[in-house]
Design brief:
Shape: globular
CATH architecture of one domain: 2-Layer Sandwich
Order of helices and strands: HEEHEEEHEHEHHEHH
Helix content: 25-40%
Structural class: alpha/beta
CATH superfamily of one domain: Ribonuclease H-like superfamily/Ribonuclease H
Largest sheet: 6 strands, mixed
Low-confidence stretches: 1-15
Radius of gyration: 17 Å
Strand content: 5-15%
Amino acid sequence: MLLWQIGAAYPAHLFSMHTTHATPSKEEIALLEPFDRLNLSRIVLVATAEHASRVYTELSCARVLGFDTESKPTFFKDQVSEGPHTVQLSTADKAWVFQLHDPQCSAMVAQLLSSTSITKAGFGLGDDRKRIIAKLGVEPGGVLELNTIFRERGYRKDMGVKGAVAVLFNQRFLKSKKAATSNWANPQLTEAQLVYAANDAYAAFRVFEALQLD
């Protein structure tokens, strides 16, 4: 067993803040079996105010959601991002990808994000927070930065979703660079974009569960 392979069956208290744990390398992660991602049948695209209203009713009852955003990439120095262009939220068995073209849809998303009664767990959320404040005009509430939890439990550098999935599940989280750098501002997202976006939020939810933070 590699030193970083804690395993999901191990209780959270074994992650000691007084012990330093090794972080898995890219080469080690590449040897693992793939993480079981959500497929399109379990991913819901939300782009209209009417649909967002129905989903809001469903998600506002959640205690915890996996959370992430996507923005159209910037390629030049001092170029300011106009993102986020999508917001992703996930439960244990389904993920929602919200497009933010419709102002009323964006308003519903802003209400969900500002709620302090829903924990929103994710990785590397600093830029997401700044962009949400700038675009949606709300301070995200109930946000849990999972990298912070791993640092508290002995990992020196940011774990990220790939490292977390490797450590907790002994699996490899697949991320497409092509999808990551695609145009998230497009009115019609591709299937590859939906799968990419939804699974970042889904993996965050699964990591939250495995860390036994609830």
